[in-house]
UniProtKB/TrEMBL annotation:
The chain crosses the membrane at residues 29-48, 68-88, 100-122, 143-163, 175-196, 208-234, 254-272, 293-319, 353-379, 399-418, 424-446, 453-470, 540-561. It holds the Pfam family SSF. InterPro entries: Na/Glc_symporter_sf, Na/solute_symporter, Sodium:Solute_Symporter_SSF. It is a multi-pass membrane protein. This is Sodium-coupled monocarboxylate transporter 1. GO terms for molecular function: symporter activity. The keyword Transmembrane helix applies. It comes from Drosophila navojoa. It is found in: Cell membrane. GO terms for cellular component: plasma membrane. Keywords: Cell membrane, Ion transport, Membrane, Sodium, Sodium transport, Transmembrane, Transmembrane helix, Transport. CDD domains: SLC5sbd_NIS-SMVT.
Length: 609
């Protein structure tokens, strides 16, 4: 087929020019290997040489002796997965700056965590955040939510590891699955051996690498483009600085859906996701947890805002000479490595530092999730069926970590076929994130809701979101929803000196697609000419809708299935400001918690004698 041959020639030619431009030096390999060695060494130290007790509390909470600053850095690092470093700049590059409002949603998230959610966990001495659901509702609620947590981890962990492997493959040409195997194995190694202490201290090292890398990329990118004023001018001319205030829920990204989605996402990820709660409750007191959350919040906003703005810098850098249009880069998620090589390729070690940054982000997310997943699987699904000992518990949790590591390697084969990683992640997590956040807030805010109502509401929310998302995906496959990116061009490649891109264009021949169809009714990223349909709404709304559905279902049901009048309210199970509205004094609660008669201890009897 002539058309197929021309396409193959174009792809091969573009790939040849790309590989000539993108090269990893010995210095880059050395920096990359050094980072992996440090991570492995930390796991080895805490697993084999640290003088800590080999207990589940030590493995999962570090003996509750962790410090505020390392935990804060660890929280920031674990939120900055490779998806953040690679896909968020790609989002800004293709769709503009609106995503930054999802980052700024962290501003109200931190007070929500400090004043509403985390005090409840500390007051009830919660180790596993899903314990709270059993205390407040029943075991069925806990089991159902932990099941959604495990399912979410199964869906997302391969993504966390695949993204950096994609970046490494892009700049070295090494087989993507080979990289995935090597790095996943190292992550499993230090997580399995060192537990939460290894996770936190590798996060500290990796967080430092990420901060340095992100700042250097932003600074060098601005300098290479001609200064901040030039960046802003090009970005404004290309429509990347436009903020969308429209209320149409079908528009892909607006200030409203990005902010609301970010609010639910960060509340869910930091406040009611075991991978983060596990670290928060490893601090010795609530005061330390509060300090850690404030530091983490500001650190997160700084580094994520830089990451988001990097996409704007990247667009300004390639303004009028788009590598994707030239065929050098196949999709937006691969733009960052290309950009890095263009601005840093001539600086020894800089590409290696950036790739180390991407791997650092993914390793921190992967290790934290593996550690918390092991704890949840053991305590909720294995411990009830075996005779518990500390040695057996640690052995089971380490086996879970290894098994999930193998699964991540296999899952990478599927992830490589995704077109937009960020959109895929946001869509998948939209199934249950809103429901999970909603049920925790329901428990802390609405005393009249019982376990039967809670379970019904979660099922309702998850099934409704699953139905909504499946129908939306059918519309996308049918071409009724088509998120075309903001325009760029190739008319300034020669003037701006992009010789590699220009050479790729000159060595490829493309024929414009000819369409004979008339105007189609379609929902795009920036508007729609179709009649309104709930299935056309932006995926950024999914999390907020899921949370709202919990309350929409639970509040009416709480009057159909009211709580038992004989049930005693425990104020500690509700948020501090809700406790003040309850007609139960702390003295009554303390009386209920004290046994009516306690036999004297042996020492007491001896003293009385």
């Amino acid at each position: 087929m002539p058309g197929s041959a021309a396409s193959a020639t174009m792809v091969n030619s573009a790939a040849t020019y790309e590989m000539e431009m993108l090269k990893f030096s010995i210095t880059d390999y050395s920096i990359f290997l050094f980072l992996l060695s440090v991570s492995a060494a930390i796991g080895l130290y805490f697993g084999l040489y640290s003088k800590s007790r080999n207990t589940t509390d030590e493995y999962l909470r570090g003996g509750k002796k962790m410090q505020a600053l390392p935990i804060a850095i660890s929280l920031v690092s674990s939120q900055l997965s490779g998806v953040s470093i690679m896909s968020i700049p790609a989002e800004s590059y293709t769709f503009g700056l609106n995503y930054i409002f999802g980052v700024l949603a962290m501003l109200p998230t931190v007070p929500i965590l400090i004043h509403i959610i985390v005090p409840v966990f500390y007051d009830n001495n919660v180790v596993n955040c899903y314990e709270y659901l059993e205390m407040r509702f029943n075991k069925g609620t806990r089991r159902f939510v932990t099941l959604t947590f495990i399912m979410s981890q199964f869906l997302m962990l391969p993504v966390y590891m695949f993204i950096p492997s994609l970046a490494f493959s892009q700049v070295t040409g090494v087989n993507i699955h080979l990289i995935n195997i090597i790095v996943s194995s190292i992550c499993v190694f230090y997580t399995m051996l060192g537990g939460i202490k290894a996770v936190v201290w590798t996060d500290v090292v990796q967080g430092g690498v990420m901060l340095v890398s992100v700042i250097m990329v932003a600074v060098l990118g601005i300098m290479g483009t001609g200064g901040l004023a030039t960046v802003l001018d090009y970005a404004s001319e290309g429509g990347r600085m436009d903020i969308d205030f429209r209320l149409d829920p079908r528009i892909r990204s607006t200030i409203w859906n990005c902010f609301s989605s970010g609010l639910i996402l960060w509340t869910g990820k930091i406040g009611v996701d075991q991978s983060c709660v596990q670290r928060i409750v490893s601090l010795p007191s609530f005061q330390e947890a509060r300090k850690s959350l404030v530091v983490a919040g500001f650190g997160f906003i700084i580094i994520m805002s830089l990451t988001c703005f990097t996409g704007i810098i990247m667009f300004a850098h390639f303004f009028g000479c788009d590598p994707m249009l030239a065929g050098l880069v196949s999709k937006p998620d691969k733009m960052m490595p290309f950009f890095i090589q263009d601005i840093m390729g001539n600086l020894p070690g800089m590409p290696g530092l950036f790739i180390s940054c991407v791997f650092s982000a993914s390793l921190s997310s992967l290790s934290a999730n593996l550690n918390s997943l092991a704890g949840v699987v053991y305590f909720d699904y294995i411990k009830p069926h075996i005779r518990h000992t500390e040695a057996r518990a640690n052995g089971c949790m380490k086996l879970v970590v290894v098994a999930m590591g193998v699964y991540c390697i296999v899952g990478g084969i599927i992830v490589q076929h995704f077109n937009s990683i960020l959109q895929t992640m946001w869509t998948v997590t939209g199934i249950n994130t809103g429901a999970v956040v909603g049920v925790f807030l329901l428990g802390m805010f609405v005393p009249r809701v019982n376990g039967k109502v809670a379970v019904t509401s979660i099922i309702f929310s998850v099934l409704a979101m699953l139905w909504l998302i499946i129908k939306a995906q059918i519309n996308i496959k049918a071409g009724l929803i088509k998120y075309e990116v903001l325009p760029n061009s190739l008319d300034q490649c020669e003037a701006r000196g992009f010789h590699a891109i220009l050479a790729a264009i000159n060595h490829t021949t493309t024929t414009p697609a000819i369409t004979t169809d008339g105007p189609r009714k379609v929902t795009t990223a920036f508007g729609s000419n179709r009649e309104f349909s709930i299935f056309d709404i932006s995926f950024y709304w999914y999390k907020m809708i899921g949370a709202i559905l919990i309350f929409v279902c639970a509040v009416p049901l709480s009057y159909i299935w009211p709580p038992d009048k004989n049930d005693k309210l425990n104020p500690k199970l509700y948020s501090p400001f809700v406790r003040q509205l309850l007609n139960v004094s702390e003295a009554e609660v303390e009386l209920e918690e004290v046994p009516l008669k306690e036999p004297p201890s042996k020492e007491g009897r001896q003293e009385n004698a």
